[in-house]
Amino acid sequence: MTYVVTDNCIRCKYTDCVEVCPVDCFYEGENFLVIHPDECIDCGVCEPECPAGAIKPDTEPGLDMWLKLNAEFAPQWPNITIKREALPEAKEMDGVDGKYEKFFSPNPGEGDA
To answer: Taking every annotated instance into account, which residue ranges of this chain make up the domain 4Fe-4S ferredoxin-type (predicted)?
Structure first.
């Protein structure tokens, strides 16, 4: 089992989760975070920290696409371990439907740089 970041993170990108991760397995895209499935130790401390409820265990049904997306982009994006401000539009984007189709960016974020 691993944890995955799902669509509600897109254009919110709260980073409360990265601060509590004991193995630093979060990676940052331009408007989204992912968890590296090979680095996640399944501790679950990140899940309750996400204000948008975007982190789920991969045992939940219907998360195959998100597991693949997290696995694809984690090696491409920079590691992030430091909490930063959420995106300016985070509150208004929380809960918006169809965020992946409308807003997902494959571009990397800043990481800890």
So the answer is: 1-30, 31-60
Other CB atoms within 10 Å distance of the CB of residue 88: 9
In the Cβ-directed half-sphere of 88, how many Cα atoms lie within 13 Å? 0
In whole angstroms, give the CA distance from residue 74 to residue 24.
12
Question: In 3D, which of 5, 13, 17, 15 has the Cα closest to residue 55?
Answer: 5
Residue type, 103: F
Cβ contact 16:85 at 8 Å: no
pLDDT, position 1: 80
pLDDT in tens, 45-61: 999 999 999 999 999 99
Looking at domain 3-86, which of 3.30.70.20, 3.40.190.10, 3.40.30.10, 1.10.10.10 is its CATH number? Answer: 3.30.70.20
